[in-house]
Please model this.
Amino acid sequence: MIEGPLFTACPITNLVAIAVSTSPNTPPTHHVLPISSIQNFTLISAPAAPNGFATPPNTTPALGNVPTTALMARADAAVARLKEAASRKNKAVGKEAQDLFDGISRTLPIRWDGNNMIVMDSVVISAPYRGEDCKAGHGVQSQTLSRVRKVVDNERRKFADRERKVVVPAVPAIPAVHTGPRKGG
Model:
């Protein structure tokens, strides 16, 4: 015989869990039993409700105020990120120019101005976007221009290396010729 308060009852699995406590200072042990194994039970008392009624109150929690200012700030930040990502894509140029832009943007601040790339707000790269197509504005140090040219040339070299890599097609395996009986199954 097991005595203790009903912890839970599941109508789907037809199981009940009873909390059995050996002493007041120890946490209870839960016994899970199939409902079909229960021969009888005695209801000693109904659970006491805080509202003074015999039935428990509605246990659905009340919804609190949602902090709309925080949600609006998150939405505005997400929209700003999407606009910034969209401004980094130029549909008027080819894939190679966009790939070059993306490659330069990993190391240097860059933005589009029409079909020209503006690097560090001081160097303009115009089509066909080679190292020699880089032009510095007035008062720009030659080190800045040479750095941008070096980055552009290195990115173009990476593109050329990727194009040179030829993917070798996989050769299908030649099945072995079996001459005798199969062993092992």
